[in-house]
Every structure is written in structure tokens, then in C-alpha cells.
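mind reviewing both lines:
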Amino acid sequence: MEKEIREQLTYLQLLSTVKTAIRWLLRRLPFSSEIIGPPRGLVTCTEKWIETNRSKGASYLELIPGVEIKRKPPQCISNPIHWKFRREYAESRPAMFVVTIPQGRVWGNVGAVITPDDCLLGDVSREFLKSHRENSIFFQFKLARPKRIKGRVAVLATAGSRTYFHWMCDILPRFHLLRLAGLTDSIDYFVINSFQLPFQTETLHILGIPSTKILLSTNHWKFHIKADVLIVPSLPSKMDVVARWTCDFLRQSFLLAESKRTFTPNKLFVSRAKARNRTLTNEAEVFQLLSGYGFEMVYLEGMSVLDQARLFANARWVVAPHGAGLTNIVFCQPGTVIIDLFSPNWVNPCYWIISSELALNYYYLMGAGEPPPEYVDPIGQSDDIVVDLVELRELLEMAEIR
């Protein structure tokens, strides 16, 4: 048996080596990836590529200047602050832009952008948990034949479009950049990798993007287009970091003036009981404790985006297991208390970052369980959460919730 396993491993290693060699050879053939193989090059700075291709009609428009950001630590009862928060205490945020690329191409369901000289623009072509060089386009022996699209095509698609957080904070803000550039009325088609979920159809309708203008890039391996003119907004930020301008755009688009005058509970406990993962195992006990402080349980599934915005705009205290529902804290008023409940195997500072931008009072609590060593990230994002009720009560007192 051991001999068979060793032989199988040797075969797989040999196969991997052969595939790597073939891909290396394909990228050096004198043919475009429109014919065979992956793109021949990688560009990690779109602005620099534009500088060398202006004579061919490419253009770059800076819309929001870069800025240096410093953040105050989150509040918690544990020590030290989790390392994922500490590494985000300071950030150098790049400028936001829109570029125009004649004869540009888009491949795959997350909108990989390919230049006319056959280079992947890495900084506008994001895939989860992959570096630019690890983009799946570089592992293809042959791309699907590109479909010619007449007119001006804008790229909104990027990773995570089927999740509420990434839709609201990564996809829709790219439309706002197009609007800032004054280009939305001139665009014939938008590349979007999902648009049929209720929150997607609602927000696209509000922003005025008709379904007739959508090029759906759902099929990762077969979607490949070549546009007369490709228009590409920058990604709004690095992964899981939300800028103030994104928060302002979402508030202006989906938070109606009358929302603040609507009566809704001001102490929210957001349930994840209907979620497929990262549920609160002892939710009943947690809610029993919170109800003594006047909290009301809410289920966001089935609510419209406008209703969620209204709910959070009137909240003053929000407690929730970490999940997409907390995206709605972008609609909260300054001073609102946020308590984010984590599994020890999955910590993401994204809602602390939003809180920092909007002057919210952010607290977090680690769930029960042995935490991994510092700087070890097991990516246990599906792990359920068990809250220690004594620690939760201590945190509620720390946050002065009465």
C-alpha cells in the first residue's frame, strides 16, 4: 500500500511539473492568449501601463487621491488586541481611478482585465486568497474564444459578488467611480458576475442599471469578451478594507431621509440562525441575557436593503455574530455601539474599519475555544461561535449598556 501511495504521489508531482513546463512554454510562444495559452505578461500597476500606452488611446483619470490612515485600537476585554486588528492600525491608501483601454478584454467570473498587448492588469483583477501571479488565468492552456462587444463596456465584477458585504463594498462602489468620472450615461454594457439575488436586483434598480445592459460573467471558464472600449474602475480598496468614500456612497444611495424618523428598535441583536455557517451555538442563552438589557432579535434575511438601512440608522446598540449583516453598520449614526462576536479561528477587522471611518464605538468578543498562535490564520470562517455569557456581560458593562 505504501509503495502504491508513493508511486501515485510521484505521478502527481511529475504531472504538475509537466503542466508547469507547458504553461511556461505557451507564454513564450509568439501568439496572443486570444489564440492559445494564458496572457503573456503581468502588470501590477495599471497607472504605469497607461503611461506607456497613451499614444494608443489608453487614458487614466484619478478621482480620489491617496491618503495615509491611522486607526485607534478596538475595545475588548482580552489582551493583547488580536493581531489582525494591530496590522491595520495604519494604512497607505492608494488613489482611486478609472482607466479606458481600447480593445481591452475581460476573462472569468471575477473580471480579469487583459490589455491589448496581452498582459493581465493585476491590481484590478482580484481573486480570493490569490496573489497576482496565482490568478487562475495563468493556469489555463487555452482561453475561450473572445466574443467581440461593440461599444463601451465597464467592469464592475470582482470576487465575492454573491455575498452582501462584497457586493455592497466592492462591486457597487466601482459604479460610483464611473459616476464620479461622468461616464455612466456613455456605457453600453456592465460586466457583473451576479445580479439575480434580491439585494442585487434592488440596488441595481436604485442605481439605474437596467438588466439589458448587463453582461453576466457567471461562467468562469467560458466568459471572455473583447470590447471596442473597455472602461475599468479601480478596486475600491484592498481586501476587507472599506474607505470612507464607500461608506458615504452607500449612505447617500440607500439611506432615505425619512429613515431616521421611522420608529424601529434601538437595541439590535442580529441573529444568524438562518445562516449556513458561523451560527451562534448558544443563541438562546445569549438572547436571554441581552433581552434583559432591552435588546430585540432581528432577522435580516428577507428584508430589503432600504429596510435594513432604516433599521440600522435608528439603532444605538448592535450585537451580532460576525457576518454579512454587519455590513449595515455603514448606515449607523456616530456613537452607535457595535459588538462583534468572533470564533477564535476566524477574525476579520472589516467592521472595526467601517466603525473607525464613521466614528462608531466598536467592541469585539472572542468566542470560547483555544485560539491559534499569534500570526497563524487557520481561516476557520465557517466555524460556529460559542459565547461565554460571563464575558459578554462584562463587555456589555464595559460598553456602558444599561
